[in-house]
Amino acid sequence: MIGQIIAGIILGLPFISSNVSSGAIAATSTLADFGIIFLLLLTGMQLDIEKFKKAEVSSVMIAVFCTFVPFLLGFAASKLLGFSTLVAGVVGACLSLTAEGANLDILMELGALNTKIGVVIMGAGILDDLFGTLFLSFALLLAHATGLILFPLNLLLFIVIAFLTFKLFPYMLAIVHRDKSLVSSFSAILVFCIIIASISVRLGLSAVLGALFAGMIIKLADHDKHEFRQIVNDLKVLAFSFVVPFFFIRIGMFLQPQHFIENWALILIVTFVATFGKIAGAIIATPFTNLRLAQSHLIGWGMNSRGAIELVIAEIARANDLIPISVYVAIVSMAVLTTLVFPFVLRYSIRHDRSILR
Question: Is the distance from CB of 273 to CB of 73 less than 8 angstroms?
Answer without folding.
Answer: yes
